[in-house]
Amino acid sequence: MTWDHMTAEFLVGHYNYWMTIILMMIGLYVVVSRGNLVKKIVGLNLFQTSVFMLYISMAKIFGGTAPILTGNEDEVYSNPLPHVLILTAIVVGVATTALGLALIIRIRESFDTIEEDEIFDIEQKMAEHATSTSGER
Amino acid sequence: MLSSLTPHLPALQVVIPLIAAPLCTLFVNRHLAWAIAFTASVAAFLVSALLLASVLDGAVISYQLGGWAPPWGIEYRIDAANAFVLFIVSLIGALVLPYARQSIEREFDASTHTYFYTCYLLSLTGFLGVAATGDAFNVFVFLEISSLSSYALVAFGAKRDRRALTAAYNYLIMGTIGATFFVIGLGFLYMVTGTLNMADLAVRLDDVGDTRVTRVAFVFILVGVGLKLAMFPLHLWLPNAYSYAPPPAAAFLAATATKVALYVLLRFMFTIFQFDHPIQGLTFEYVVMPLAIAAMFAASIAAVFQEDIKRLLAYSSIAQVGYMLLGVALLTETGLTAGIIHLFNHAVTKGALFLAVGCFVYQVGSSRLGDLKGIGKTMPWTTAAFAAGGLSLIGVPLTVGFISKWYLIQASLEAGSLLIAGLIVASSLIAMVYVWRIIEVAYLEPAPEGREAKEAPLSMILPTYALVAASLYFGINSELTSNAASVAANALFSATNLASEGASH
């Protein structure tokens, strides 16, 4: 891509896609960089939401209505399929979030923390303990 | 009655375990739940056997869900490649259940058993659905059904070791990122083609040609599925997930999850993208193949230094995925056949090994090497099963492992690379080291005083031996597997397209 493409029209016309990219990157960065397990789930949600936006953006037609038969053959309507796909993806996303949060609750109960580095320290100690006692059973 | 069901086999394959899953929870009784789960898994296995039998001659079954014609409706499309995967997955699914009963009886509270069976069946449904469907977005949905229930299955291990919870959490994060990458890739494909039916996608992508959008879609799908199949270096979730999952769940997942993800990769790469454009072939040659070889060595070496057998086997799984990817990345029909044969052979071998380890855990309460000294004397049958599986992992003649390696080496020689053939042999030698470590501890070290470990119950030994027997039988008589694999490879290689098939419907 050359810089000639970077006209104001191109930049503004792809507003949805810029936002999608920004959200996607923020989400992925939060997942990778935060040590708090709940914040990771928040990041994951942002990441997934950006993909929902990507799908909806490609389906939307300016001035398009809902895909309902109105009798007018020239009616412009948005593509319903990506919308439906994203409904499914939202359900998957909700299920993932629910399971993730449920796991966090169980982790909090058994490790007494939801910070990744503290959990890592505890697991490290467990591993050392197991090595030193192994074979004494 | 039965004959009227025959046309609906592709749907039944997925629907039977799907309907049985909630029934397990609804009937609160855990014995009844087991009976339902077992019946459903056996039924699914029979269906897959019938499907495999009817497509082995190269036929393709197209099933229109709800009677909506493809490419608008969702199509289940069974050819030799996915029938073979369906067969493996449902075989393992049916064999692990009788084993699971005893194993979880000792491990979990009675009230949670029904949930275990529900998650298990949902996971099975997901894997079967991924393999059966001919619709690209449907793959994502089933992938997430199987993944979500797999996360729950791994978390069940928290009863024994609370680290299972963090393992499940990390698996969830990585798996979801992988699935989301996959969906992004699908979105791009839909943008340029306007279709989600795989066969239709293949035709239309041909017309689109090599654009930046298809390249981006290709990479997103490769990375997304790579995360699910634990392609080195995207494997970080796997060792913990497999070592802390309860033994039956670990055996089931180790034998099926990565295999189904590999199938998805093959389906997208060969049927949909078809390597029409140089970038796709180059990606496999210069990215996937080096990574596959790196996995064969790095993961095998990591396995040598593990103190826990389950963890050791998990690392070995990553190495074995490397072998499969290596075969595929050769981009020849022989290479693809080798990859698919190894997919089956490794599922059988790793399933047997994880089941044997589960027997150790059942009796000794641990799978650490230090706790299993001299176990060969007190649990001779289990240890013998483990040894047989270990030999197959190395690739000793008369085991399935040998057949895989034979085909792989043949494929790499055919591709003109003596170096790759040498690397395959070299990494098998590392496998010998880690298998020998276990054999040595089990047979040659003296058993500690006062350990009361008897042989595991028959219901656990029998499924283990069924898989061991399969790994020996298909190692001696490889006709069925190699035939199925080469038909499958052929089916993947010869591009599917709607136009040529229009006559048959």
Total strands of chain B: the figure is: 2
- Major beta sheet of chain A, specifics? none
Count of helical stretches of chain A: 5
Helix/strand class of chain A: mainly alpha
CATH architecture of chain A: Orthogonal Bundle
What strand order characterises the main sheet of chain B? 1-2
Number of helices of chain B: 21
Mean pLDDT of chain A: 86
- Assign a percent range to the helix content of chain B: over 70%
CATH topology of chain A: Helix Hairpins
Largest sheet of chain B: 2 strands, antiparallel
Helix coverage percent of chain A? over 70%
Structural descriptors:
heterodimer; A: mainly alpha; Helix Hairpins; B: 505 residues; mainly alpha; two-stranded antiparallel ribbon; 21 helices; disordered C terminus
What does this 3D model show about the protein?
The complex is a heterodimer of chains A (137) and B (505). Chain A has a single domain, classed as Orthogonal Bundle (Helix Hairpins). Helix content of chain A is 72%, strand content 0%. Chain A has helices at residues 8-13, 15-33, 37-59, 80-111, 116-133. Chain A starts with 7 loop residues before the first helix and ends with a helix. By secondary structure, chain B is an all-alpha fold. Chain B has a domain at 297-495. The interface between A and B is large, with 35 and 38 residues.
